[in-house]
Specification:
Helix content of chain A: 10-25%
Radius of gyration of chain A: 18 Å
Low-confidence stretches of chain B: none
Distance between the termini of chain B: 60 Å
Low-confidence stretches of chain A: none
Oligomer: heterodimer
Shape of chain B: flat
Strand order of the largest sheet of chain B: 3-2-6-7-8-9-1-10
Number of strands of chain B: 12
Bound molecules: flavin-adenine dinucleotide, iron/sulfur cluster, FE2/S2 (inorganic) cluster
CATH topology of the largest domain in chain A: Rossmann fold
CATH superfamily of the largest domain in chain A: Nucleotide-binding domain of ferredoxin-NADP reductase (FNR) module
Largest sheet of chain B: 8 strands, mixed
Radius of gyration of chain B: 22 Å
Order of helices and strands of chain B: EHEEHEEEHHEEEHEHHHHEEHHHH
Largest interface: A-B, 40 and 49 residues
Shape of chain A: globular
Number of helices of chain B: 13
Strand content of chain B: 15-25%
Number of strands of chain A: 15
Largest sheet of chain A: 7 strands, mixed
Strand order of the largest sheet of chain A: 10-9-8-7-11-12-15
Structural class of chain A: alpha/beta
CATH class of the largest domain in chain A: Alpha Beta
Chain lengths: 282, 350
């Protein structure tokens, strides 16, 4: 939902953007860069990991991009963007000090209130780690509010890994179980090799008190969900985030629709239970 | 003013010419052998004897290309794209198209509401005209319940015996009628005429679907995998005409356009169609609604299933435009009836 906080700053049109300054740029791979941003005038806004912003570069257009920081990160917010086209390409050319337009936050984020006191199994494939990084940071900042936390991370090859500096920390955290796998390894790789689905059977968990949070490419979901159901995790505790084409973020333009559901408003985060009856979802 | 007044046909055109002072007047006009909504300067251009226009009047309250935001890159600034929305009169709208406006209303008034739409709509005065005979074989307005007035207008005109009986439905309606001595009170006899006209209509206007809307909804709930969709999808050529001409289709794309100085520009939205093959495709290459079968099904579901779940309202007005325009001769009434037949056969085990 378009948040009331932003409504305050955007008085008359939901298409109006606010200026945000790029305060740092960090390239992670040849295609992906992290941008640390701050609203002009240091205005703060509240959000939930899993929500997204519409990012504008005037002349190049607008695109939905996940927030990858946590609301517990004060004084800035972050996005990580893969260069795939006109807007994302133009963004990759920008530097510290440049301004971009933002509006949001949009959609429903991860149901963190439901997570409190429960065990969390985070499963990230490819770019799926981007929104999940926000959730992981949130959990690390409020660690005592959660039970067991496990992270399974999968990517194509070690060079494709995002947030590798932070991933290393997650691996060292004693209160977080962390496993990583790559499709294709180089000789220095010490972790697992193979698809992320292969890691699930080996995970120890208490299904009734575990929330599995899965974000990855569309092909991944079917297989991962099958494994999670085999583990006995109820469908209402399997949480997914779905990508769709989006233009307005306001439940109007129609691009993001899954059957009768507007992903930009009711998603992108869903409970698997609510997707089972939607033929166009998975 | 009374809720019902009347005007003789002799005075009618005088009154139409007086509407100019309430803003630009858009009305049906003959164009070769069809009709289109256009601005009219003089009542002689008006032709109320028409079957649905090629495009619905949505182009006036939901323009094909609408500015959303004005921007400049350096210095980084944004501003209102439209300084002033103009008052206008939408004249001679069929009841099916009024239903279309009501559909758009619920969409664009839903939070987060759409200021462009609301601004245009608030400045619009709507004059409806009641149909006295069915348009053609493509329309399904009777089954959709839109062959009779159901609100959504400021005033409604019904032609009876050399006069128009006028139903006032709002203050705006009163404003455009006030101060004309030739607009008279309706007598009880006039009201009786109106009642009997409506009764007569029941005989002339026949339901086009073989079942009631509740059955249609059930059928759509159950038959998403029907062979009817394969047939429709196979014939469709994906031109997108059906959505362009539909009064309840409102999908759009958002684009930026830069001035020649490459610094200032406008962000605007323009009509888009779920029938285009890149409509649901994302950067990773996935197409979330691949193939014409699923795209045609989606169009129909956005008329007969999803909006009922969301707004308790059918988003087909029965205007028949999609069927009239389709190059592949895909006919909405046929599609719906084929589905109903299939469902009935399945229910009795054929
Ligand atoms: C909820 C959500 C969160 C996202 N989060 C991120 C993120 O954190 N990081 C990231 O790098 N990407 C993210 N994306 C994907 C990102 O929005 C697209 O890569 C981006 O829109 C492409 O824009 P472009 O102008 O660079 O590409 P274009 O030049 O417009 O097009 C390149 C390709 O992108 C596809 N495309 C165009 N517009 C969209 C759109 N609005 N949505 C999806 N695909 C589109 C087109 O089909 C085309 O094939 C997210 C998408 C969604 C829906
Ligand atoms: S008008 Fe006919 S052919 Fe064109 S997209 Fe619509 S159904 Fe298909
Ligand atoms: S679906 Fe066809 S008949 Fe129904 S409102 Fe749209 S154009 Fe008219
Ligand atoms: S992005 Fe426009 S309706 Fe969801």
């Amino acid at each position: 939902m378009f948040q009331s906080e932003f409504k305050k700053i955007i008085p008359y049109s939901p298409y109006r953007t606010l200026p945000a300054e790029i305060i740092a740029v960090k390239p992670y791979t040849s295609l992906e860069k992290l941008f640390r941003l701050r609203l002009k005038g240091n205005a703060e806004f509240d959000y939930v990991p899993g929500q997204f912003m519409e990012i504008s570069i005037f002349g190049s257009g607008e695109a939905p991009i996940s927030l990858c920081s946590s609301p517990t990160d004060k004084g800035y917010f972050e996005i990580t963007v893969r260069n795939v086209g006109s807007l994302t390409g133009a963004l990759h050319n920008l530097k510290k000090g440049d301004l971009i337009g933002v509006r949001g936050p949009f959609g429903k984020g991860f149901p963190i209130d439901d997570f409190f006191g429960n065990d969390i199994l985070i499963i990230a494939g490819g770019l799926g780690i981007v929104p999940l990084r926000g959730l992981i940071r949130y959990i690390m900042h409020q660690r005592k509010d959660f039970g067991e936390v496990q992270i399974l991370l999968g990517c194509k090859s070690p060079e494709d890994m995002l947030f590798n500096d932070e991933v290393e920390q997650w691996g060292r955290h004693i209160d977080i179980l962390f496993q990583c796998t790559v499709d294709k390894a180089d000789p220095d790789w010490k972790g697992n090799i193979g698809l992320i689905t292969n890691l699930i059977p080996g995970v120890t968990l208490n299904p009734m008190r575990t929330y599995a949070v899965v974000v990855g490419p569309p092909v991944m979901y079917k297989f991962v969900i099958k494994e999670l159901l085999k583990k006995g995790i109820p469908d209402r505790q399997i949480i997914l985030s779905l990508e769709r084409r989006m233009k307005c973020g306001l439940g109007k333009c129609g691009h993001c629709q899954i059957n009768g559901i507007y992903v930009c408003q009711e998603g992108p985060v869903f409970k698997y239970r609510d997707l089972r009856t939607l033929g166009e979802a998975l | 003013m009374e809720r019902y007044v009347k005007i003789s046909k002799k005075d009618f055109y005088k009154w139409v010419d007086s509407l100019k002072k309430h803003g630009k007047v858009y009305a049906p006009k003959r164009k070769e052998n069809t009709h289109v909504f256009r601005p009219i300067k003089d009542s002689s251009e008006l032709d109320l004897n028409y079957i649905s226009t090629i495009l619905p009047p949505k182009k006036y309250y939901f323009p094909q290309k609408e500015s959303l935001l004005k921007f400049s890159i350096k210095p980084f600034e944004t501003a209102k794209a439209i300084q002033k929305f103009e008052e206008f009169v939408l004249f001679g709208v069929h009841t099916c198209d009024l239903a279309g406006i009501q559909c758009m209303d619920v969409v664009f008034r839903e939070d987060p509401l759409d200021p462009n739409y609301i601004n245009r709509k608030d400045r619009m005065t709507t004059v409806g005209i009641e149909c006295l005979k069915p348009c053609d074989k493509h329309a399904s307005c009777v089954s959709m319940g839109n062959h009779v007035p159901r609100g959504g207008y400021d005033i409604m005109l019904t032609e009876i015996k050399g006069s128009y009986i006028i139903h006032l439905n709002s203050q705006k309606g009163e404003d455009i009628l006030q101060g004309h001595s030739y607009i008279k009170k309706c007598t009880q006899a006039d009201r009786n005429l109106l009642d009997s006209l409506r009764k007569n209509k029941e005989r002339v206007f026949k339901e086009e679907f073989i079942g009631q809307l509740t059955e249609v909804y059930t059928v759509f709930s159950k038959l998403s995998e029907s062979g009817v969709w394969d047939d429709v999808g196979k014939r469709c050529v994906g031109c997108g005409n059906c959505t362009t001409v539909c009064p309840t289709c409102y999908c759009f794309d958002v684009k930026d356009e830069l001035d020649l100085n490459l610094n200032d520009g406008l962000r605007y939205r323009w009509w888009n169609s779920c029938q285009m093959d890149d409509f649901a495709r994302v950067a990773g290459g996935e197409d979330f609604r691949p193939g014409r079968v699923s795209r045609q099904r989606h169009r129909y579901y956005r008329k007969f299933k999803y909006p009922i779940d969301k707004f308790n309202r059918y988003f087909c007005t029965g205007c028949g435009r999609c069927s009239r325009t389709c190059m592949a001769k895909i006919n909405l009434t046929e599609t719906v009836n084929d589905l109903i037949k299939e469902h009935r056969n399945v229910s009795i085990g054929i």
